[in-house]
Each structure stands twice: as C-alpha cells, then as structure tokens.
Amino acid sequence: MPAAFNLTVALPWRHQPLIPAELSSNAEFRSVMTSQLEGATSELQVTYAADDPSFRAAVAGLPALRQLLRSLKDAVAAAQPAAPGAPSPEFQDCVRAIDAADRRAASA
Predict the structure, then answer these.
(1) pLDDT of residue 35
(2) Tally of CA atoms within 13 A in the half-sphere of 43 that contains its CB
(3) Residue in 14, 35, 32 with CA at minimum distance from that of residue 24
(4) Is position 53 within any domain?
(5) Do 67 and 33 lie in a common domain?
(6) Distance (Å, rounded) from C-alpha 103 to C-alpha 55?
(7) CA-CA distance, 70 to 99, in Å (whole number)?
(8) Per residue in 41-67, pLDDT tens?
(9) Are residues 28 and 42 in the same domain?
C-alpha cells in the first residue's frame, strides 16, 4: 500500500472562524452538522473496509460458510428424530441460530 503525506504551512493573517457564531450556537445547525459528519465517517469506514485484503478474503469465504451452515442444519434435522426423549425447543433454538447466521452471511 503506498504511503501518502500532506503538509500545509501557512502564516495566520487574522483569526476568523470557519462557521459564524450565529450558526455555531444554533442547536439545529449543530445537530445537522453532527449527522452529516457521522454519515461521512460511516461511508469512509465502509469504503476502507471494502479495500482491505482481509475483508475481501472473508467475503470470498462466505459461500463455503453458507454451505457449512446448510450441512449443520441438515445434521440437526436428522438428529431430532434420533433423540425421541429430547425436548424439541432445543432443536428449534439451534435451527433458529443457524438460520440467523445464514441470513447474516447472505447479507454480508
């Protein structure tokens, strides 16, 4: 990954705030500004994550993970009739957890 460096040197001429006092003291403006900054930060995080080789490797492994989850779900379904005295809620909880993991993997 190439490194980048940026340096700006300047002499101050006079102090003048970027945002006028009327706006900086306005609660609605501060709320909107905070919301915009959080949105921009979130967008940058997604962009940087998508460019990360580890993230790409994890995404490439998702199809295999989903196949393993399907196999696990099949194994749980096959084990349920083999355990006649076992309470069914445990199997249902297991299947729900597998389904939730599969939905998360599908939407990643």
Answers:
(1) 95
(2) 6
(3) 32
(4) yes
(5) no
(6) 18
(7) 9
(8) 999 998 888 889 998 999 999 999 999
(9) yes
User: What are the DSSP calls for 30-51, one per residue?
Assistant: HHHHHHHHHHHHHHHHHHHHHH
Are 56 and 70 part of one and the same domain? no
Residue among 78, 80, 74, 64 at smallest CA distance from 98: 74
- Report if residue 73 sits inside a domain: yes
> 53 lies in which domain range?
23-60
Dist. CA 108–CA 60, nearest whole Å:
11
Q: Check whether 86 has a pLDDT greater than 70.
A: no
CB burial class (10 A; 0-12, 13-18, 19+) of residue 69? buried
How confident is the prediction for the chain on average, in pLDDT? Answer: 87
Question: Are 56 and 66 in the same domain?
Answer: no
